[in-house]
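The protein record quoted in full:

***
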Amino acid sequence: DIHSRRLSFAEKTAQLELTLKQEHVTLTYLQEEAERLRTQQLEAERAKEEAEKELEKWQQKANEALRLRLQAEEVAHKKSLAQEEAEKRKEDAEREARKRTKAEESALRQKELAEEELEKQRNLAEGTAQQKFLAEQELIRLKSE
């Protein structure tokens, strides 16, 4: 009876030692797994922080690109307005030049007409003077007869 109790005690002890070893192996595995998960979590947090920094950097670049695009659009708009103004001034200058040319042509035509009229008046005056001279000559001749 004692022998069977000892045997039963030895079996139970062996079984408990085996269970203890299994639990120790399980505990070691769980500790290693927990450490691995902690390491993974730290790496994930570092990767997340790095990704957030990278995202912030790209957002800054996108904002800078947007700012530059808006600035370029503003410059282009100003250039467009300046070009429109320059074209308007050019058209105004061309219109004024055409008016001036027409006025000059008109003045030249008026001058030509005035010169023609002056020439007619001179010719008329010469003709009248000639007639007066002839009439005076005729009068002198008639008086002398």
User: Anything to note?
Assistant: The chain has one helix and no strands. Helices lie at 2-144. The two ends are 208 Å apart (CA to CA).
